[in-house]
Amino acid sequence: MNARSLLAALASLAVALPALAQEGPVLKEGHVDVGTLVDALAPAEPKPPVRTRSIRMVRDDVGTAPVSSKPAKVSLTITFDTNSANLTPRARQSLDVVGQALASEKLAAARFAIEGHADPRGVSAANLKLSQLRAESVRDYLVDTARIDRARLDAVGKGDSEPIDRQNPDAPENRRVTIVNLSR
Question: Could you give all domains of the chain from N- to C-terminal order, each with its CATH number?
Fold first, then answer.
């Protein structure tokens, strides 16, 4: 490999890594379990203030450890029929697990955004509409099948604006659903 090729490879990596690092891994259908989802979607709990010889050591202005400003979220590969919002049987199985997680004691009071994402193939306006329909399809499935209260779930179409793998537009992780905990 010559120096020019090496520089090009490093530049590609520098562009791809921040996007992958900020989004985190995408859970694939069939590899989703309730415990993993609950842990990923539960908001970080503040640590109690440190006390030393009856003197409270304040870690911030409210006496708790800083909590991450990023919301708890998880991305899932949820498959749909081609160019539609119809869930595949495998997607339904994964969403059954998601429903169990959202109904768990740790998450039962939380509100969530269900973000639909599309890959950048096709027209952006059509991808936005399709991603919205897919987010609504996931929300409707969770409401109808897992009996999750509709008021706890906001469906949001993101279109093709936030691909994880910018180097490979057709990558399945670009066609995903991200569940974001809106509760703090």
Answer: 19-181 (3.30.1330.60)
